[in-house]
Amino acid sequence: MRFGDRAQAGRLLAARLGHLRDRNVVVLAVPRGGVPVAVEVASALCAALDVVVVRKLGLPFQPEVAAGAIGEGGVRVLDRRVQRLSGVTNAELATVEHEQRRELLRRLRRYRLSRAIRVKGRTVIVVDDGVATGASARAACQVARARGAARVVFATPVCPPDVISLLRQDADEVVAVTTPPELDAVGRHYDDFRQVSDAEVIRALTPPATSSPPLGRGARQRSIEVPVGRVRLEGDLAVPDHPIASVVFAQAGAGAGHSSRTRHLAAELNRAGVATVLAGLLTHEEELDRAAVSDVNLLGHRLTAVTRWARGEANHRLLPVGCFGIGNGAAAALRAAADPRSDLCAVVSLSGQLDLAEPWLGRVRPPTLLVVGSADERGIALHERLVPRLRCERRLVVVRGANERFEEPDALDTAARLARDWFTGHLTSSARPSA
User: Fold this and answer.
1) What is the structure's pLDDT at 215?
2) Closest by Cα among 9, 65, 61 to 38
3) Nearest Cα residue to 295 out of 356, 361, 370
4) Which of 68, 131, 184, 208 is the 20 to 30 Å CA partner of 371?
């Protein structure tokens, strides 16, 4: 099994951890690679997020091979088998440990921006992006235990079975999405395994002052299942008091564990009085199929079914419905907007893959806002070529300094405000008169 990137792996991992929701959970990420995975897990479980800092003790002549690991609070784990087979001396290992201890302290000062989140008496989920030998994972679990965790769960997208057995010495439960018999490199299970920077870690741990609250705060929230043919799509419905409209989010993924980015956008709409439906357009198994992720006909058909479900809700029958599409989900939104059965009143596309929806662009009728980042050169070229094919009311906005994922400070807030204004302006003018 391969993952598109760490965020997708985190969403799939979160789906395996649903039984821990409402268990007074704290998520501790192993930086740096474990942080993007842990962000998705914490978001899905509505849990606090912090880091647990550990460092691998690599062999001096082969640093990728771990002879042990160290962790904050003086934790130290040694692999006597590796030491014996490699012939590394205690003096050599002490030199490596001295260097890694300095890096551990640097990362603690860099990442621990305030007091560590209290874990005593709580369930702690330790998250990393993958495990090959288990030394660092064991050290992280021991740190959590030393800080007083009542229960320690180690969770990762990829881990071999023999290492899972090893980790059970230090964790009460081990959860992995895929368990290959042999694992020589974690990165081989990812399409995108770029190095995570310190800046990305800090952004994940320090939401901007203007960031949105979790989905549903200030709005009534419940989990939903939308039947579409033989599948049931999972999602969340959030309804503020006296809603003025409803917006369905379209993402080419499964419903459990929606990304923090999507929840941020939805929360902005909730505050403006707009109900939001976050339903995955694929099942968890389908999300792993690249063909399904880019099948706009399939995604558009399911999105139309979700919008019709939203209209059928007893409290929503008089509300105009819009659609917010992201990435491939934006192509699905435009495909659905070309289908009169969806009865959409407005569309917003964020970093949309317009080429996937090219055959249907001329049939889109709802007013459409298209948002792209200025650093996304391919996206800008794509929009400049295809946006003129839209015959509906349209607006293209390039957000300065934003990349394809809108990860930069303030970029996502800007996109959220643009979408809020577009939806409230166009959906309220489309509101149906009450009976």
Assistant:
1) 46
2) 9
3) 356
4) 208
Please say whether the dihedral angle defined by the alpha carbons of residues 396, 194, 15 and 257, taken in this order, is positive or negative.
negative
Q: pTM for the whole thing?
A: 0.57
CA 85 to chain centre: 40
Predicted local confidence at residue 212, as pLDDT: 41
Determine contact, residues 63/157, Cβ cutoff 8 Å: no
How far apart are the C-alpha atoms of 239 and 66, rounded to whole Å?
Answer: 50
Retrieve residue 360's tokens. 């249907």
Stretches where the chain sits below pLDDT 70 are 113-115, 206-218, 254-260, 284, 288, 314-317, 409, 429-435
Least Cα distance to 153 among 20, 298, 7, 339 occurs for 20
Distance between CA atoms of residues 124 and 240, nearest Å: 32
CB atoms within 10 A of CB 286: 18
> How many other CB atoms are there within 10 angstroms of residue 48's CB atom?
15
CB 70 within 8 A of CB 94: no
pLDDT of residue 233: 87
Cα(384)–Cα(389) distance, integer angstroms: 10
**First CA to last CA across the chain, in angstroms?**
52
